[in-house]
Amino acid sequence: MAAGVPSRRSMVVLESREPPAHFANAGSPAPDTTLNLKIALTAANRDGLEQKLFDVSTPGNVLYGQHLSYEEAKAFAGPTPDTVQAVTSWLNENGIQNIATTGAFGEWLGFSVPVSTANSLFNANYQQFNEIGGPTKLTRTLTYSIPADLQPHINIVHPSTDFVRVSKGPQFHTPVPSSGSNNTARSLIDPITCDLAITPPCLQDLYGIPTNSATQQTNQLGVSGFLNQWPQHADLQHFLETFANVPSSTSWQLEILDGGSDPQGAENAGIEANLDTQYTLGLANGVPVTFFSVGEDNKDGDLDGFLDLMNFINSQPSPPFVLTTSYGADERDISPGLANQLCDGYMIAGARGVSVIFSSGDGGVSGSQSQSCSSFIPTFPSGCPFLTSVGATQGEEETGASFSGGGFSNIFARPSYQADAVGGYLSTLGNTNANLFNPSGRAYPDVSAQGANFVIVNGGEVGTVDGTSCSAPVFASIIALINDRLIAAGTSPLGFLNPFLYMNPDLLSDITSGDNPGCNTTGFPAKAGWDPVTGLGTPKFESLAAAVGL
């Protein structure tokens, strides 16, 4: 801890926001309250990295599939020595000496100071905020400044102006709907019951997913785990024995970050963690699955785990080729600076050959969860243009699920790869929902998959869950199986998917019915082509595989 009188420089506001809607000011913390802060340093060549991402991810480009190594990515994404020196010197001048360098490429400078020092250093006013009707308590400021001469070197100071609430996650429903059989659990294996409840064989039948085992052990599929959500070996074994065509001895590899863990026992069962591991292992037969258990050490806000996970992934010499995450937040709760910092982390991963996949949210047009609103609420990180967002369908005759999160970002502009598809949709939409969303924003979801009535085993009980949390691991498993074939053929994994998908929309089944209501509206309607309920549509395994030469 350090305290000092800041050197006086010309200051400029870096971030500022209105008071958050879902938090109440709970007063000033004691001046000696410790704040653990981090400064994100600017990249040496951020725009060059974005260009590289699209070069290696766009079919037809001479660099397609030539993903970057760690050292190559570092040359773009790491800070320059001048940037490190400039910011470090300023902190030293203000009595801050114990500075930790973290991140995948040394792009974060961390330090601890009293609130009084932070307020003086950043012209800030850190206050305590409590979530209205919720458990989250944060120390945040509504505005902060940095020296004007350091503006080219600093992206954000974190935590500062973000107010992220903990996601509720999917709900577990018991008992499983009756199929009229004396053995309900076993009968649900039969694809004919897929309109009643979803199991891996249903999805294999619906999307043409192969059941034979993958062969390439270098092909890793990563599953993100947050918020003390822990998968259970006993639940997985029960699930695989009863509902899947996969050996019941199959399991995940565990990677622990930030004091994470994976305790076993029915009382430790996590609905989200069990859902994600049971369906990736139940569908991506033979693909090595790693569960990333991200704990709560050094946390100050729900998105710190997102940051730490991507710093870890991007620091690896051989990151997983697919990373699926079924967590998210409302975009309005996140500062644009933090949103961009995280989004650039996904850009780095994509440039290195990782397919980053996120669920699109479960509130239709009202955000990550259903809530009252006067205008549409985009979700994050689905609005980031460097990942693939997955919405939900339901029923054997697929229709858009009413909860499927979809819409348009207020932070990120529409990327060129979706300009035609989204422009066409907006033309047919006309004045529907006018002034309730940003028509020039990055549109999501990109694709969709089944997301209702998924059978899982949780704490020894068989039940069902709904949500785009179901859809994301399904799509991720399909990509992981295609990667297995690509690697076996001696070629590169798919990496960042969106340019390939938007160039080949006929590789997916177009879903033209359904909508995603919210904010006292019926939301967006699904239509022919891309739409903000089901994206480009649902996967057809063999068509996708054939398009990459398999």
TrEMBL record:
Residues 197-550 form the Peptidase S53 domain. GO terms for cellular component: extracellular region. Its EC number is 3.4.14.10. Keywords: Calcium, Glycoprotein, Hydrolase, Metal-binding, Protease, Secreted, Serine protease, Signal, Virulence, Zymogen. The active site is at E272, D276, S469. One of its GO terms (molecular function) is metal ion binding. It holds the Pfam family Pro-kuma_activ. GO terms for biological process: proteolysis. Binds 1 Ca(2+) ion per subunit. Its cofactor is Ca(2+). It comes from the Eukaryota. SUPFAM superfamilies: Protease propeptides/inhibitors (SSF54897), Subtilisin-like (SSF52743). InterPro entries: Peptidase_S8/S53_dom, Peptidase_S8/S53_dom_sf, S53_propep, Sedolisin_dom, Tripeptidyl-peptidase_I. PROSITE patterns: SEDOLISIN. Ca(2+) binds at D510, I511, G529, D531. It is found in: Secreted, Extracellular space. Its main location: secreted. It catalyses: Release of an N-terminal tripeptide from a polypeptide. Secreted tripeptidyl-peptidase which degrades proteins at acidic pHs and is involved in virulence. This is tripeptidyl-peptidase II.
